[in-house]
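fold-stage: in
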Amino acid sequence: MGNDALRVAAVDVCRSSLVRAQVGARRGTGRYTVTMGKGLFAKKAIKKGDTIFIERPLVSAQFLWNSLYKYKACEFCLRALETAEDNARRLSGIPDLSLPHPELCKVHPELHQACPQCQVMYCSNECRQAAADQYHRALCLGTSQEDPNHPISKLKDAWRSMHYPPETSSIMLMARMVATVKQAQDKGHWQKLFSQFCSRAANEEEEIAHKLLGEKFQGQLTVLRTLFTTALYDDHLNRWFTPEGFRSLFSLVGTNGQGIGTSSLSQWVHACDALALTSQQREQLDSFIDQLYKDVEKETGDFLNCEGSGLFLLQSACNHSCIPNAAASFPSNNFLLHLSALSDISPGEEIGISYLDCCQCDRSRHSRHKILRDNYLFICSCPKCVSQMDELDLTSDEEEEEEEEGGEAEGDDMEDEMTDV
């Protein structure tokens, strides 16, 4: 995976004139609220199931707890490094487990390469070189990789002490932004790219404060900013190290970071689904996979993937809708984001994705608005929300109980823990 595109263009879109013609970004035309300021619109008809575009992130990083828990991913593209069988053994706790059809695993350990200085792992020499060329030289700890007193190690430890699983972001995403600018010959080019992401800590017109940047987290932010400055300060980016600039950078990552999940086991399962088998063979294989997932759930729970987040310039232009017509996925088992149509999209129609998960989308309008207001600094007025405007601004009894329980926990823990970004 070369790095030419990182120097030439903000994103890698499918190399197809059809795809380039289908999608166009408009600034200042977001129709959900006057403050959203951007949107993505179809220029030609897009059919349900079509891939609208494929994009690589400007920067990405694996979550720190995820890495600590031995979810092995490429330091550049987040491709899962464990073979499907090794992954299944670790997640199920069955050390002698053997997967049928091992040839379907697409992980190639013989291609993996380590940084010669710090020994972090990459899925290929291309990824190792791409990381070195973009940001890794500025972040490489060399022989200090295991030194807990190294400034970057202290920064990572502080983040882990404030941001517990389930993780939603990483301080290292911000670190790689700084390192990218540090290493770049054209520093202004990268600063301009990063400036295109929404980075306000609050939405001035609606006076919505980002929940992470309120008074409760000032102490944690001060600690992080001090450690961040010690580890990474650069004169070209001095504004990012001021209290206001760091808060803005924190908000940029918190509101624009897209989660990335990769799994060699999931990729193997999808490959099994595509096999041409007899009915008896299919039944046997499906039974094996069902039992495997039961064993994994019992041993590991819900944490199955290598997880991280990235900043995707084109995807970040997609506004939210509670009834989205597009969705992002990572079928290549790396950081390449595929945006696919969930329904037919007409020329001129806005391409909308959901910032909420499936369960959150099914909650009341009031609850959806609270989540979006707290995390993304806007109030949604998509067709679904408009149609529910006459509903009382109350959550369901179940949601109220959840909020009450959450409030009790907050009183005890919120001063010491930062659990959402």
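fold-stage: in (second)
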Amino acid sequence: MGAMTKVRLKWVKNKNLDHVIDYETDLKAACILKDAIKRSPTGFLTAKSVADWQKLLGLTVPVLRFLRRYPTLFHEFPHARYASLPCFKLTDTALMLDSQEEIIHQSHEADTVERLCRVLMMMRTKTVSLRSLHSLKFDLGLPDNYEKTLVMRYPDHFCFVKASNGNPCLKLVKWRDEFAFSALQKRNEDNGVTGEDSSYREFKRGQSTLTFPMTFPRGYGAQKKVKAWMDEFQKLPYISPYDDSSNIDPESDLMEKRAVGVLHELLSLTIHKKTKRNYLRSMRAELDIPHKFTRLFTRYPGIFYLSLKCKTTTVILKEGYRRGKLVNPHPLTRLRDKFYHVMRTGFLYRARGLGMVSKEELLLDRPEDDLEEEGSEEEEIVEGSELEEDSEDE
């Protein structure tokens, strides 16, 4: 088979998915601050101690202003010795939500261990630096102190090692065949079981193509060039991200399809079905994906969406969302929705100059009520906003 005919595609804006990035940027920052306050030996943080955290938290406003925005989570009080120094501790509501989060972490520990194993199994040396893992902690739904708790409880799964450059890493102790099964394979098998798809039965008989689910912006899918290209792509053999790829020509279409499969799997393992491009870049060599991997996201807009919201580049797995909502929300994402609802309610009360809202009232409404109304799945082609395929900035 000859090389695939590749079509240069315009970047397409998806308002629903951009909205997800918008609200989750503040949510993630609030969760990190909540964990930092909880870890603090004094049980509070001073405004001075968090003043330099703005970039780390991905915020577009100073940290002090951010903390003051959400009085339902962060209770402000003056320092005992320095009256002009604002301090912040967690409200009763925040502490209650945190204890619910602990319960979820405990009851879903087996799932977290499996996801962490899968991430390590995709790496060339079955190791990942703790720095890279720390960046992915929120996206993978790892508990705050996972190195001291989760990892230590599973010595037959994980161990700490030092890389040749001296960086601390987490390593997989033993390969686990039962986990070497991608989300795409599972999806196709589930469809096969329900009689929806015969391709998986063929795949198991040794015919190695598997279909990636794709949804195109209006007008894209109908273009003959795009359709022909995607048909060619789908017909290429599917190589599991858990299989050895050392014998595949790195310049081939097959290697490109393998790289798409790796990115698809890694995004499937995140609980919000998304992560920042920079986080992926730190693991690029271990994942054996091309240096200029951003072009894979722009080249396959039926599978991925690249959002430029909040002064960063986030990549989203499109099949994980429908009308801006997660299709199969993990219990932790449901709790985070509740957390966001509490944030938003406090923000609105504060903006209206009302008194403190009661804990009962805060948790009364469903968290989804406060999110934007479900819109259409419509995406629009934004003229002049073509993403540079080679742009690997940040």
